[in-house]
Design brief:
By secondary structure, the protein is α+β, with helices and mostly antiparallel strands. Helices cover 38% and strands 24% of the residues. The strands form three sheets. The protein has a five-stranded mixed β-sheet. β7 (140-145), α6 and β8 (163-165) form a beta-alpha-beta unit. α4 (77-92) crosses α5 (118-136).
Length: 363
């Protein structure tokens, strides 16, 4: 059976949902993110806004300068999650093996519903794209290939509302002209290393001697060469174990106000506790993150003798860590709270008999 894997990526998802909810915004540059007069970044920009140079993760003040007449909206995450569930329910009508990797992106294994016929898998993927538009009202782009990695790259080449197919045996030729950074897992640092070695495209990377790549780059050298050839056997994983739950907030103004910082940590602890309750989990480890005004960041955590789930328990542990590790008087830019070492709420919430809490540790 020939594998057929699709990556579905919703186009400018947050902005598109806002336009669906408010049709009068159609055709306008919609920018979702932090308030324009505060510190923060763009979360999503509509394609109309992108014509002005606005991009995700851009400082909001830069976006305002580039697109002063844009429609600036704060994110409505509960609304986006509802639309995401509708999209995934639509996808699952056609295929049961769906790996949702984010609120707006999912891998779909079409091998079984297509009975191993790649062309039939492509037809199902086209039907999927049509169904998402007709049933939910959202545009999406799809990449279809024999592996997750190639499907992801293909999807990125066709946005917005793209449909890019890389057929069996065409992987290396499709990848060859692309920059090395297009391969998932090759970031700016590794990309710079490869370029210094005279390797700029995935085709040039694929042509390298395997042993020489391992000599230069260690174990990742072999992986990078295989990626450039389109070799990826990773499966579509339908269920992922939740390993941690966290929340964080960036302040509008750096602050050393202890009372303000304590209240922010307590509020985040409550949010984390609510998510633990929703997932019916308890946490054996509670941690905090502090980012100072100069972007120096520390994370500290404490593993407990008994798993916790309540807002009071999470909050008390987080505040104890804060008091122990905050450099008093030093302005803070961001605080975060994390719960990890998760256990089912209905199970045994304690560690082994006689276990003692670990000392705070550096994550």
């Amino acid at each position: 059976m020939t594998r057929c894997i699709a990556l579905l990526d919703l186009d400018a998802f947050y902005a598109a949902v806002e336009v669906l909810e408010r049709p009068e915004l159609a055709g306008k540059p919609v920018i979702v993110g932090a308030p324009p007069d505060r510190r923060g970044v763009v979360t999503t920009a509509s394609y109309e806004a992108r014509k002005f140079g606005v991009r995700s993760a851009m400082p909001m003040r830069t976006a305002v300068r580039l697109c002063p007449d844009g429609v600036f909206l704060q994110p409505n995450f509960p609304l986006y999650r509802r639309y995401s569930r509708r999209v995934m329910d639509t996808v699952r009508r056609l295929a049961s093996q769906v790996e949702q990797v984010s609120v707006d992106e999912a891998y779909v294994d079409l091998t079984e519903p297509a009975s191993g016929d790649f062309d039939r898998g492509v037809e199902i993927a086209r039907e999927m794209q049509r169904d998402v538009k007709e049933r939910v009202g959202l545009d999406c782009s799809l990449g279809v290939a024999t592996s997750k990695m190639v499907a992801k790259i293909a999807c990125g080449q066709g946005k917005p509302h793209g449909f890019t197919v890389v057929r069996p045996g065409e992987e290396a030729a499709f990848l060859a002209p692309l920059p090395v950074e297009e391969a998932p897992g090759i970031g700016p640092v590794t990309g710079s290393e490869l370029r210094r070695a005279g390797i700029r495209t995935l085709g040039e990377l694929a042509a390298q001697d395997e042993q020489e790549m391992e000599r230069r780059f260690g174990r990742r050298g072999r992986w990078m060469r295989e990626a450039a050839l389109g070799i990826d056997e990773s499966p579509v994983v339908t269920e992922r174990e939740v390993k941690s739950i966290s929340g964080e907030t960036t302040f509008e103004i750096d602050t050393a106000d202890e009372g303000f910082l304590r209240r922010a940590i307590w509020k985040l602890s409550g949010e984390v506790a609510r998510r633990l309750e929703q997932k019916e989990m308890r946490a054996r480890t509670v941690g905090i993150k502090l980012r100072y005004h100069n972007f120096a960041t520390i994370t500290r955590a404490r593993t407990l003798a008994h798993a916790v789930a309540s807002a009071d328990d999470v909050g008390h542990q987080a505040l104890a860590l804060f008091e122990a590790h905050w450099e008093r008087g030093r302005p803070v830019r961001l605080v975060g709270v994390k719960a990890e070492g998760l256990l089912p709420a209905s199970g045994d919430a304690s560690t082994e008999a006689g276990a003692r809490p670990e000392q705070p540790r550096l994550l």
